[in-house]
Amino acid sequence: MSATAAQPATASTASRLLADLRAVVGPENILNHHDELLVYECDGYVIEKKVPDVVVFPTSTEHVVAIVKVCNAHDVPFVPRGAGTSLAGGTLPVGGGVMICLTRMKRILEINARDRYAIVEPGAVNVWLTRALAGTGVHFAPDPSSQTACTIGGNVATNAGGPHTLKYGVTVNHVRGVEIVLPDASVVQIGGVAEDDPGYDLTGLVVGSEGTFGIVTKVIVGLTRNPEGGRTLLGVFDSVESATEAVSGIIAAGIVPAALEMLDNIMVRAVEDAFHFGFPVEAGAVLIMEVDGVEAAMDREAQAITEVVHAHGGKVDKAIAWRTRKEPEYMAIWKSRKSAFGAIGRVSPTFCTQDGVVPRTMLPNILRFMEGVSKRYDIRIANVFHAGDGNIHPILMFDERDPDQVKRVLEASHEILEECIRLGGSVTGEHGIGVEKMAMMPKLFTPDDLAAMAAVRDAFNPDGRCSPSKLLPTGGHCIERASPGRRASA
Amino acid sequence: MSATAAQPATASTASRLLADLRAVVGPENILNHHDELLVYECDGYVIEKKVPDVVVFPTSTEHVVAIVKVCNAHDVPFVPRGAGTSLAGGTLPVGGGVMICLTRMKRILEINARDRYAIVEPGAVNVWLTRALAGTGVHFAPDPSSQTACTIGGNVATNAGGPHTLKYGVTVNHVRGVEIVLPDASVVQIGGVAEDDPGYDLTGLVVGSEGTFGIVTKVIVGLTRNPEGGRTLLGVFDSVESATEAVSGIIAAGIVPAALEMLDNIMVRAVEDAFHFGFPVEAGAVLIMEVDGVEAAMDREAQAITEVVHAHGGKVDKAIAWRTRKEPEYMAIWKSRKSAFGAIGRVSPTFCTQDGVVPRTMLPNILRFMEGVSKRYDIRIANVFHAGDGNIHPILMFDERDPDQVKRVLEASHEILEECIRLGGSVTGEHGIGVEKMAMMPKLFTPDDLAAMAAVRDAFNPDGRCSPSKLLPTGGHCIERASPGRRASA
């Protein structure tokens, strides 16, 4: 790419910014042609778009520090991005400016299976770490459905979950520390390889902060011992309702499944058409039910699950006994589940994957509600979700070229999320707030609660130059005036 | 108590403060006689003392709000206190002022075993919750040795651990949310009964913040399913070294024990003299080794542990198979362990319980080092510790009436903690920084790291009136100038 690329209106300012960034990372690590930048106009949330002014690809912490200094000197906003798999617009460059793409900081720096940690750069893809740990007896537990693409930095930003969240928790439960470049370009080490640390738990604060505190440049992840074995069962039900009741029945029976995933009929058909796994396409719903742990307990737990399935009118179509998660049959069933979104891509030009949470016992209610929404807005909705967590992922299918469909999808999404709140749940289980759901925050939190969050954000990011308009409104005077720090000193 | 109590020098100011506080909580909920206040001059850390000006006992969140407003109006510092079991001076009223004692906010407000949470007031004693949950099939996992006295609010303040931390984690892993009165007297709800929440993880930030962000007035704790059963084994070894090697051996064998506690010979003798449990008083060290979980796996795991013990020259003196943690033999062994500190009270007029962490593999090194320290400073040191976590608790015995002994204990403690850092560990595993270890913070963190923590603290507590001089130095200009927020906007 050359320096004569298409320039924004204020050419001289923009070209000085570009020259300064080029001096930091070299011309090979910058994109600024409009056609190249188009790739970065959105992430997995395709409804809002904004082209960044420039995309830089740092290859070291020193690069990130220098880039942030340049942005501060030019007073332009900056936003980090990993693989762009965010489903909530977490990497949308709302006010333009500099996108800091971390995909070239992708090394696995250290693996210590004995003390159960690894140190990785933020651009390392989730599944690379899984592969690198093969044979060590330990693994990195968070396994988002997008794990073959999403980066560990992105997992940290959104506090990502996955099918095994039910038993193993979300990303924050598996991060021991980070190195972060703060918005003032200082580099701070938070946490460390040891499991507990004195002082404030800033690691927990940074995980899930969606880039609003700075740019994470290293992640120390905790590793989890592999189970001795497990059982993965495919349950087939006439209806989504009987399947959800079986989910409640399994939990009530005192079993802690490693995963409990549901696919509705639309989803089963899409997956089956795409991958030919042998899913029963007539089923009203399919449940993937998994237990893992001490081998001696597995058959008994699988039997208990089978009994619950039968009690709710379902049948167990497959039962896989496995010793490692690398066995072909095991991998096939999970590939089908994790490729569900890809399968939908074959049947709809565009789709919006929503992310809501309800108390597990409210699953039948929200599913019935979504049927109504689907009819009222004339939008097809497929469902695949982490049933054990009450974390729903309705997939709203539409054609983004039709503005009316876009409008209907937005309104339908909104109704579904409002119903989640009304049922005692929340508007995101694992994808984050991003730009998509900022307007929902006041429905979940009181002004004082939001002021406390804003006060913390402002402590790190007082000018709001880093990831502006993400997670919380930036610099809104109502919130600023109400922030606890300012009120107390007033 | 009457309004004519002994008054400090500035009688009129002090009496106005007292009158204002009395108007809030009523005369029955205030102490201000000097002889009554003496009880509150220190907590479990007896080396520094300071009498508060007044102690108030709120019985509601509204009381706490009104008390904080009075303190702000009078510009006096305030500090929360629970049962005063802190071992690091966490409740020392460093600058005098108002002590807010939460022991009359002690109700268990709700228990929901199905959704696995309970809501308690901060003054509820840890073991009360355990008792209230009997028969529900779930329990509150954090079980500090002081659990019959310490409050859940104190557990939250220090992010307390306990013998079962090894498998079940520390307090933060079992807190879903809090209600907190911020230093500006606003009331904020953080987290909730659901397991995941959008927005910043302020729950994790508040847990372990030692009262420097405000006063927690409600705690939503997560409850853990009881195991089907377990095995508790008493291992007897010739030396502390062979016992610590067995600890490493057990972990290396792939067992995740529920607890791995060590008592050295001095400790075994003290416990045996006090409680006559039948501990072998000639043993160089005793290990309490526990596994819990699926009953079908227990015998095999107990056998594996026994083999490791034998391989390191030890023997298994007792092996208790239990189905609940209420069985008498089970309770007796843990009573002995948890009363270790009390037992020391019978053999030494005063003692200082230290709290350090080393990588587990460094346990033999730190134990050898402590032997040398004991000799050099002529201070007897008993050892009881969470061996599985590498969390040591040397107990330094002395007579506080002898200033030279006090000096030697402080220097010996300091040397031990410095060695913990040198070995790759930290200066506190579970008791917190308090006032005792503030000076060690710069040895663990860079100025930028500390500035980031100070920035967060200042966001909540800008005037430092709430729990001053705890965890981090208050209002030191070096730190204030270096805080990221201020630097970025400078």
Automatic annotation (TrEMBL), chains A, B:
Pfam families assigned: FAD-oxidase_C, FAD_binding_4
Ranges for domain FAD-binding PCMH-type: 48-226
Gene3D superfamilies referenced in this protein's UniProt entry, alphabetically: 3.30.465.10, 3.30.70.2740, Vanillyl-alcohol Oxidase, Chain A, domain 4 (1.10.45.10)
EC numbers: 1.-.-.-
InterPro entries: FAD-bd_oxidored_4_C, FAD-bd_PCMH, FAD-bd_PCMH-like_sf, FAD-bd_PCMH_sub2, FAD-linked_Oxase-like_C, FAD-linked_OxidoTrans_Type4, Oxid_FAD_bind_N, Vanillyl_alc_oxidase_C-sub2
Keywords: FAD, Flavoprotein, Oxidoreductase
Annotated signal sequence range: none
Known cofactor(s): FAD
MF terms in GO: FAD binding; oxidoreductase activity
PANTHER family: GLYCOLATE OXIDASE SUBUNIT GLCD
Name by which UniProt lists this protein: Putative FAD-linked oxidoreductase
Organism: Paludisphaera borealis
